[in-house]
Amino acid sequence: MVERVSEVAMALTAPTSAREIAERADCATAEVRPHLEWLVERGILEKATDDPMRFVRNEAYAEFRRITELTREFETPAAIADAITEYRERERDLAASFEAASPDAVVLADVESEDRDEAYDRLSEWRAVTRRLSELHDAKRRLESRHVD
């Protein structure tokens, strides 16, 4: 049960009640509450509201965890540099397709209506690529600090 509650907790992007978390984890609400409090104490979750009690994933913790996973995956600054190059190329391609400097500069209303679904998908990918690039750079800095001669 702890694993199910933790998995649900890490997927929370909006304030969510203990009852909703229990439903998603296929557990009783009373059983879930102590685990949610434990996750809050550890900084994995945050209490978004007190009345009613709602929880949300701690984004700083989630980012730390993603960066830690990247350092394990790539192991060396050189290996992660190759991934950064690949993501940077994809980011440039996506920027060129929108003729924009950043995903925030894109206005989907300016896209032809028949192309909007595809544009939305590419814009979502661009945002994900941009976020991943930031995480890769952070992971590279962490790896470089470990590999100082």
Largest sheet: 3 strands, antiparallel
Tally of strands: 3
Report the total helices: 6
**Helix content range of the residues, please?**
55-70%
Percentage of residues in strands: 5-15%
Number of domains: 2
SSE diagram, text form:
Elements: H1 2-11, E1 16-17, H2 18-25, H3 29-41, E2 45-50, E3 53-57, H4 59-74, H5 77-98, H6 116-146
Antiparallel strand pairs: 1-3, 2-3
Helix pairs in contact: 1-2, 1-3, 2-3, 4-6, 5-6
Walkthrough of the structure:
With 149 residues, the protein is mainly alpha-helical. The protein folds into two domains: 2-57, Winged helix-like DNA-binding domain superfamily/Winged helix DNA-binding domain (Arc Repressor Mutant, subunit A), CATH 1.10.10.10; 61-146. 67% of the residues lie in helices and 9% in strands. It is built from six helices and three strands; from the N terminus they run αβααββααα. The chain has helices spanning 2-11, 18-25, 29-41, 59-74, 77-98, 116-146; strands at 16-17, 45-50, 53-57. It has a three-stranded antiparallel beta sheet with strand order 1-3-2. α4 (59-74) crosses α6. The longest helix has 31 residues, at 116-146. The relative contact order is 0.11. The model has no long low-confidence stretch (mean pLDDT 89).
